Amino acid sequence: MSFIPLLPGSLSGPPAERSDAARNRERLLGAARELIAECGPDALTMDRLAERAGVGKGTVFRRFGSRAGLMMTLLSDSEAAFQARFMFGPPPLGPGAPGLERLIAFGAERIAYVMEHGDLARAAESSAHSRYEVPAVMLWQRHIEHLLREAGMDADPLLMAMSLAATLDPDRLLHAVRVQGLAPERLTDSWRELVTRVVRGR
Amino acid sequence: MSFIPLLPGSLSGPPAERSDAARNRERLLGAARELIAECGPDALTMDRLAERAGVGKGTVFRRFGSRAGLMMTLLSDSEAAFQARFMFGPPPLGPGAPGLERLIAFGAERIAYVMEHGDLARAAESSAHSRYEVPAVMLWQRHIEHLLREAGMDADPLLMAMSLAATLDPDRLLHAVRVQGLAPERLTDSWRELVTRVVRGR
DNA sequence: GGACTAAACGGACCGCAGTCCGATTATTAT
DNA sequence: ATAATAATCGGACTGCGGTCCGTTTAGTCC
């Protein structure tokens, strides 16, 4: 988790990080994972986190900016893995399969992802102003748009991608499964049906 | 806004409302509309509202339950008017037109509605746990589902309605228009395209 | 009118996310 | 080693939504 900088002056890039700052970040991430494992993401408050990690509250916010930022950091590993799979992995999720098949696979994988990391994802998006500025969310949407074009979608792929992305919103998916009691497979089936109809068109 | 109860005992229904309670509710609604007219819905805090209306903070919450509840109350008039139009009004929005045409009209009207009352609607849905328990939202979704069935949708109309409703989420629509700078007409066009493809199917 | 009761009242209080600024400490140059 | 400097630290503070409970008051029954 630490590395020796090749260049002392560190040309290009943030001007390095002080050792205590790095130590505190690790402490905070560890404490956050502990608390989430114990009581779930919703019970993680910034005060409790600071106390558990043995640092001041200001430190938490300087490190992660906000609660949502912390959650995004916690998600970033699995998030990056997921991104790698649909961008560079084997088909049908990755490149090599027709657009429609990749779309179907994408939805299925995303639903599975939300079932696993949903609470975290929801917490990461619950930033007051911008639920749609989250980089990962924007990337997904552009990916869907790309696949739509590849599948021959002619009419406003950007907005179609927006609509399809709305369907995969973690909040909605979790509500459907946890509150409405729908089976995840049913969501997957419905997604397949939806994108098929949208792509095949009138 | 007030009426004389026909039966003193008030069979069936809440056990009447005390006069001071009614007076305070009117005061609060008036003050809320003032504040919103002055600074917009986001600047309306429950403390300010209580102060402006000349009542205690506890009174505000007993009256409306929560900030979201207050916003829903403020919306209820225009909300009811909208509902009446798509349930009993003239076609193509109301009954009498084919399902697909009604769906298209519904989306267009909803987009227009959000452009007008969007901030309020967003505030009304921003209750932590349940953005989807709002009665109006549930009604819309069931209405979409009904229209889908009427238009001959065979595959899981409930989930298809859920996906389509997600497209019409106020938060998303406002973000598309205000942040992304998309023209509302483009949203309407895309909606028409979307529902047409979904209904006409594979 | 006067007593009784249930409801409404109000504002102190809580936990939360996020901000601010004086004190502290790691780092670099001398 | 020492001083200078810039980043980090910590916790008091703010504003918010929401809760609680002792006090007040409207409606009712005699």
UniProtKB/TrEMBL annotation, chains A, B:
Record-linked InterPro entries: Homeodomain-like_sf (IPR009057), HTH-type_TetR-like_transc_reg (IPR050109), HTH_TetR (IPR001647)
- Record keywords: DNA-binding
Which SUPFAM superfamilies does this one have?
A: Homeodomain-like
**One Pfam entry name:** TetR_N
Q: Where is the HTH tetR-type domain?
A: 22-82
According to the UniProt record, which residues make up the DNA-binding region?
Answer: 45-64
| Name of the protein this chain belongs to | TetR/AcrR family transcriptional regulator
Q: Which organism is it from?
A: Pseudarthrobacter humi
